[in-house]
Design brief:
Number of helices: 27
Largest sheet: 7 strands, parallel
Pfam families: NB-ARC, TIR, WHD_ROQ1
Organism: Escallonia rubra
GO molecular function: ADP binding
Number of strands: 19
CATH topology of the largest domain: Rossmann fold
Distance between the termini: 83 Å
Radius of gyration: 36 Å
Keywords: Leucine-rich repeat, NAD, Plant defense, Repeat
Strand content: 5-15%
Number of domains: 6
Strand order of the largest sheet: 13-14-15-16-17-18-19
Low-confidence stretches: 1-7, 46-54, 536-544, 702-713
Protein name: TIR domain-containing protein
Length: about 725
């Protein structure tokens, strides 16, 4: 019986034939046998009005048929109608991937290919008509049409077909039975259930689709990658449906990551692959190694299209796909993955990273799910745009929220939008959390949560310095997060960025640690942190009492608007890696001789009380970044700054009363960036040369009044 799988096709079979030869005999019997077998079959006198045939209905009917059976009989070429139909059939094969089965009824493939015999006689008449045509434009049109027919006959004759004379001993009944069996075999390779609304998909998949339709013998592997919910599987399914019938064998292995976790999961995937490409033949496989041998044998025999969906380990590729040289010429492999590192471990023809949808596409996709049409209904545009903004181009989120809000009142929409500000939608969260769950160790998971809660939009190097002080292996950890598309680094600004739904997912993981009592969570941010501190509910820290009650291993202290003139001696700052006291009332950072050997970053911007005695820099020998922006009363920087052999950045932007730089500045061997913009009273730079050993030093000197010259070696 014919397949009942969801399909974009209106017909299983399109019959192309010369009515004068076979309508009431062979083709009629074939049609009846196909219908009896359960295949919805198109033929012109059954399915459409003949007057519409040459207009829009013909290409539509052919395009909507999975297989076109072309019955090539003695007088087939005598019908220009049939020849035009054949051209259309082959165009649909090329552009849409429809299958074509030529049936040679009382003719040989060589007669069709070389246009001899009855086919030669027909073309001799057509060529005479071209020669006799007096109108030049008409003659050129006929000649072009004639060339198209010849090319079509050559192409169809080269396809794998069925010849009456060579099969079933020339007996028509047996021949028809064999044709029905072949159609049945082709139908077993069913299309996949495509997403109902494929907005912008053809454009996104255009390059891969062209690659799949390349008729060369090149073997290729393409990776489709991106964050969860971005549409990787949807694209892969769509491409598979468009192209699988171009290959002798095909297989779509879904959810490879999940299946491989199960007992004998890889063996199950191997069995499915072999069953698919061998058209239902069951292979007895008892272990992965045995499966690899069988797959190697099968892949070398036939041209295949294989899709491996959601791969996250190289071992999965090795077990199911093996080596590239196993593949038969012309075979194509597509994998989808959330892991960039996987792409470096294998040999790929190309890597296609799926980008998020733009606002126009997003609104259309959301509208289909929310309203059943391509735009919002009256009164809902504003709220629809808010949802689209929240989803930020992620198709999964647009589909889930569109479906959940469909048919609801504006009041419900308002409430849902408010809830989304605090709690992510469950289905979206579950899908995105798969990438977090796949992280191999707790260090990476904690690093992800810290970045999601505190460091999105922050400089990568600045963040790494802080988190390294917390005993994170930040460099490799950030690499692992980028690998799983959980994090990216801005190419122009070196800042850490996440899709905001990924960030929401991370924060929701922390919120779930204690939904009722924020003080019991591992991390606090923004309003909840303020509320917890205000109500004094945070364990181990109180706002009353002495500074000695701060955590002993405090590594990052960020206190904007710090009210004291100096940091008290009982404040446990000896383990600080980063100190951020912008907008403070400090006049001196601290007094005494307490060595801060771990401090790498110090930001005192907008601390208007700083004049000259900032601090003894010999107490912070490992400082790498010093930021004193807009310390408008700062007159000079202490000469002790010269001991900072690791200082990379010195930012004095907007220090409008700064008179001179310390003479020891040339000792700063590691200095890469010196920012003096807005230092309008700075003078005599000639005596304070930057370090001569610095290879590249960026100096910002805008809006300096008295500037003679800076010598950079």
């Amino acid at each position: 019986m014919a397949t009942t799988s969801a399909s974009p096709f209106a017909f299983h079979v399109f019959l192309s034939f010369r009515g004068q030869d076979t309508r009431k005999t062979f083709t009629d019997h074939l049609y009846a046998a196909l219908v009896q077998a359960g295949f919805q079959t198109f033929r012109d006198n059954e399915s459409i009005e003949r007057g519409k045939y040459l207009n829009s209905e013909l290409p539509k009917a052919i395009e909507q048929s999975r297989i076109s059976i072309v019955v090539l009989s003695k007088t087939y070429a005598s019908s220009t109608w049939c020849l035009d139909e054949l051209v259309t059939i082959l165009e649909c094969k090329k552009t849409h991937g429809n299958d074509v089965l030529p049936v040679f009824y009382d003719v040989e493939p060589s007669e069709v290919r070389k246009q001899v015999g009855s086919f030669g006689e027909a073309f001799e008449r057509y060529e005479n008509e071209v020669e006799e045509e007096g109108d030049l434009e008409r003659r050129m049109e006929l000649a072009k049409r004639l060339d198209g027919w010849k090319a079509a006959l050559l192409q169809v004759a080269d396809l794998t077909g069925m010849v009456l004379k060579n099969q079933a001993d020339g007996r028509e009944s047996k021949f028809i039975q064999k044709i029905v069996e072949v159609v049945g075999d082709k139908m077993k390779r069913t299309v996949l259930n495509d997403a109902p609304h494929l907005i912008g998909l053809d454009l996104r998949a255009k390059d891969i689709n062209s690659w799949l339709r390349d008729e060369s013998n090149d073997v290729g592997i393409v990776a489709i990658c991106g964050i969860g919910g971005i549409g990787k599987t949807t694209i892969a399914k769509h491409l598979y449906n468009l192209n699988f019938e171009r290959f002798k064998g095909s297989s779509f292995l879904a959810s490879v990551r999940e299946v491989s976790k199960q007992p004998d999961g890889l063996v199950r995937l191997q069995r499915q692959l072999l069953s698919d490409i061998l058209k239902g033949k069951k292979e007895k496989i008892h272990n992965v190694d045995q499966g690899i041998v069988r797959i190697k044998e099968a892949l070398r025999r036939i041209k295949v299209l294989v899709v491996l969906d959601d791969v996250d380990q190289v071992e999965q590729l090795d077990a199911v796909l093996g080596m590239r040289d196993w593949l038969y010429p012309g075979s194509k492999i597509i994998i989808t993955t959330r892991r960039k590192q996987l792409l470096k471990a294998s040999e790929f023809h190309t890597v296609h990273e799926v980008i998020k949808m733009d606002n126009i596409e997003s609104l259309e996709l959301f509208s289909w799910y929310a309203f059943g049409q391509d735009h919002p209904i009256e009164g809902y545009m504003h709220y629809s745009e808010r949802v689209v903004h929240y989803c930020d181009g992620l198709p999964l989120a647009l589909q889930v929220l569109g479906s959940s809000l469909s048919g609801k009142s504006i009041g419900v929409w308002k409430s849902a939008l408010e809830k989304l500000k605090a709690i992510p939608e469950g289905q979206i969260l579950k899908k995105l959390k798969l990438s977090y769950d796949s992280l191999q160790d707790d260090h990476d998971k904690n690093l992800f949560l810290d970045i999601a809660c505190f460091f999105v939009g922050k400089d990568k190097d600045w963040t790494s310095t802080i988190l390294d002080g917390c005993e994170f292996f930040t460099t490799i950890g950030i690499h692992n997060l980028i690998d799983r598309f959980l994090l990216r680094v801005g190419p122009g600004d070196n800042k850490l960025w996440m899709h905001h739904l990924i960030q929401d997912m991370g924060r929701e993981i922390v919120r779930q640690e204690s939904t009722k009592e924020p003080g019991k969570r591992s991390r606090l941010w923004h309003k909840e942190a303020f509320d917890v501190l205000s109500e004094k509910t945070l364990n181990n820290i109180r706002l009353t009492g002495g500074y000695h009650e701060f955590p002993k291993k405090l590594t990052w202290l960020c206190w904007h608007g710090f009210p004291s003139r100096t940091i008290p001696t009982d404040c446990p700052i000896q383990n600080l890696v980063a100190l951020d006291m912008r907008y403070s009332s400090l006049k001196t950072v601290w007094k005494g001789t307490k060595l801060l050997g771990s401090l790498k970053m110090l930001d005192l911007s907008h601390s208007y009380g700083l004049v000259s005695d900032v601090l003894d820099f010999s107490l912070v020998p490992n400082l790498e970044r010093l930021v004193l922006k807009h310390c408008i009363n700062l007159i000079e920087v202490p000469e002790s700054i010269g001991v900072l052999q690791r200082l990379v950045l010195l930012n004095l932007k907007g220090c409008q009363n700064l008179r001179k730089l310390p003479t020891t500045i040339h000792h700063l061997k590691s200095l890469e960036e010196l920012i003096l913009s807005g230092c309008s009273k700075l003078y005599d730079l000639d005596s304070t040369k930057p370090p001569t050993s610095t290879q590249t030093l960026r100096i910002a000197i805008y809006r300096m009044v008295l500037f003679q010259r800076i010598l950079v070696a």
